[in-house]
Structure formats: C-alpha cells, structure tokens
Amino acid sequence: MMNKNQQNLLSKMATGNGHGENSPYFDGWKVFEDNPFYPTDSPHGVIQMGLAENQAVANFMEKVRGNRARFDPDRIVMSGGATGAHELPDFPLGPFG
Questions:
Q1: Rounded to the nearest 5°, which phi and psi values hold at 89?
Q2: Which residues contact residue 80 at a Cβ distance below 8 angstroms, ignoring those fewer than 6 apart?
Q3: 3-state SS of the chain?
Q4: Where are the domains of the chain?
Q5: What is the pLDDT of residues 60-93, one digit of tens each?
Q6: Which has more confidence, 42 or 46?
Q7: Res 46 pLDDT > 70
Q8: Which of 6, 34, 45, 80 is disulfide-compatible with 2, CB 3.0–4.6 A?
C-alpha cells in the first residue's frame, strides 16, 4: 500500500486487473491455443493472424541488416501508424485521460 506522498509510477490500466491473463487480449490467445486451425484436423479452428506478419518483418529486418542482427518475431509489436505506436507504451505507463 502506498502512502499519499508517494507517486504512482504506472497508470491504473497498467496495474489493474485488465492486464495479464485476465485481459481480453489473452482470451484470444487462449482460444487459439485450445483450437488452432489446421486444414485437415481442425478446419474450423482459430487462425492466429499476428504470427506470419511478425515472422516476415523479422526476416526482412535481418536481410536489411545484412544478416548481422537477429530479430525475434515474438518480440516484435506492430502498429497501424505513429499514433498507435505512441499509444502502446503511453496507455499503460501514463495517467488515465
């Protein structure tokens, strides 16, 4: 528990119950893990759309760097533009509003 003189370093969004395993974001991953798509065994399964794009970006960036650097596709976060890129760290770290 913080006293009233201490400053919050993370927003309520970052420290609340909406993050981690209890968030809607992870609900999608859980459904995918329980029922992944496979053409013959699970044709009605879930297709995880983010994986192929991350792998393509990682491969592209490695080629751009002359294969002198490695990029982990699991650590790539894609954004729909500058606003989205700013919002990714801003919402969890900044105060609400």
A1: -85, -25
A2: none
A3: CCCCCCCCCCCHHHHCCCCHHHCHHHHHHHHHHHCECECCCECCCECCCHHHHHHHHHHHHHHHCCCCCCCCHHHCCCCCCHHHHHHHHHHHHCCCC
A4: 24-92
A5: 899 999 999 998 887 777 777 787 777 777 766 7
A6: 42
A7: yes
A8: 6
